[in-house]
Prior knowledge:
The complex is a heterodimer. Chain A is of the alpha+beta class. Chain A has helices at 15-27, 44-48, 55-81, 94-121, 136-139, 157-166, and strands spanning 7-12, 33-36, 144-149, 170-175. By secondary structure, chain B is mostly helical. The radius of gyration of chain B is 25 Å and the shape is globular.
Amino acid sequence: MPAQAYGLIATFETTAAIYHAAEQVRDAGYKHWDCISPFPIHGLDKAMGLKRSIVPRFSLAGGIVGFCTGMSLIWWTGASDYQLIVGGKPFFSPMFAFPVSYELTILFTAFATIGGMFFLNGLPQHYHPVLKYEHIGRGMNDTFFIVIESRDPRFNLANTKSLLEKAGGRDIKELEA
Amino acid sequence: MGHLDETFAAPAILQEVKPAVLPRAVLVQNNRSFGWITDKVCSLIEGKTPAWWWVCFGVACFVASFTVAGITYLVSTGVGVWGHANPVNWAWDIVNFVFWIGIGHAGTLISAILCLLRQKWRTSINRAAEAMTIFAVVCAGIFPVFHVGRVWFAWYLFPIPNSNVIWQNFRSPLEWDVFAVSTYGTVSVLFWYVGLIPDLAVLRDRFYGAGNKLRSFLYGLFALGWRGSNRHWSNYEMAYLILAGISTPLVLSVHTIVSFDFAVSLLPGWHTTIFPPYFVAGAIFSGFGMVMTLMLPLRAIYHLEDLITQYHIDCMCKITLATGTIVGYAYAMEFFIAWYGANPNEGFAFINRAFGHYAWAYWIMITCNVITPQFFWFRKVRENTTLVWVLSIFVNVGMWFERFVIIVTSLARDFLPSSWGYYSPSIVEIFTFFGTFGVFSVLFLLFIRFLPIMPMAELKAVTAQADPHAGHDHH
């Protein structure tokens, strides 16, 4: 039953074809749709009307937490919890605490960046209707797809199909949910 | 004046700038299609395991068993089985540690720094180079961990509450090194894994199509449900860029901190400000040596000439030449400063390096590190793959000797002549070090057998047909 379908999938053979098709889908006002490609296509974000990724916000937060962790760890262990004189040096100084804090900044940034990317992408994901499409293997290899979801308010089986056809899509199929 | 007027008639400033059109080197030769790239890279995994692989794997396991034997004997007996004795209490273990860590640096340089510099030629070699980084860090880690003596207390290196209640000494560069190397290992693995995800998804679907459910499941498990969505690519590319951005200061800081292990001490020959940049340049030099040592045979065996082109080899040779020359300059500058600084101990340390008991090691180092890379000035040399490979071996040897010269000569002849000594390795150390080449090879062979040795998605993205505006202006 069409009402239960996840959406429509259309096939494109070249990057230029999917790029221009994406512009048309964007201009038609769709919100819940996606492009599937084996590699990131330069400029496709703009053609899809995507905003700049917000991954850097996670990275910045991770970096700040990492730096503060390093500094406070070294201050607390050396100057607060157990003071020990070594080589007549101060119990705490941001100078000698810097290398470790620097490394922890990078470590925490890396975790936050990757964690943030997974979170935003909803990965790991056990099941997705797109992966059930019989030719999806080619989407990892050399072919490009546009998927328009049925939950989009503008989705209408006939109109959406004709839009994808007009945009140059081939083998337009309904995807099972 | 008429003659002069004519001379000045030509305008001093050109009407219009005409930049020379430089042809861009083709990164994937013979205009290969996306499908060809997928098939080529995946065929290395999907095909029957070649006989040479089993032979190499057997040899590698045998060699690796030397490390196992050496370490087992050390742990069951004590760290005294190594040749260390006063005054040389750091020797092969630290030499080998710095050697392996340095090799790892080229992998990060290729994946991170060249990514930021938009050097697209990195794409065909970055996956294998990153794998090399991780395996080199594994080999490096063995030495300091077992040098602590009672290895079951190695966790004391980390700020975990222990029964002695006291904490680590964060004033010590050795503790900085613990954080630098463990961060480096962790971030390298993460960076490598993030790069692998789209390629694992390719393998998942290919094995599924071929009816191999088990392998499809395993690759799928690590592909995390990747489906090539452009909304995902958008976040993915940003994350990859940030990882490249943070790996760049990371790789520079790691060898800087490794050099602090020496530079922050007061020993003549170690206590110099040139150490951080000099160590970083040396690390990249040795790492590119190792990348060429590994990639040139792989290129020949797997017929990857269309993906690792002569242009790639040229680039790697030139980086080796540049960093090798920096290293040579650092050697000269150390001598100059030892003389110019007018410190008798410092001066003696350097004269002793070149003409003392370890002069043989010093001149091996100079030959391999300063003279060898100079051959890369010549195009004929760079185009002779066999010769490039042989020279890359010399680079590896030379950089091992550099660490040996720095560490051992300074310790063997310190301030008090009464404590002078001469260090030779014991058979246990030789076994342990020899075996790490086996450990490295075992890991690398498993990598080339089970994981895509080239990033397929990135390779496809640098082909001509990947550009949606091929032949048109951007609008």
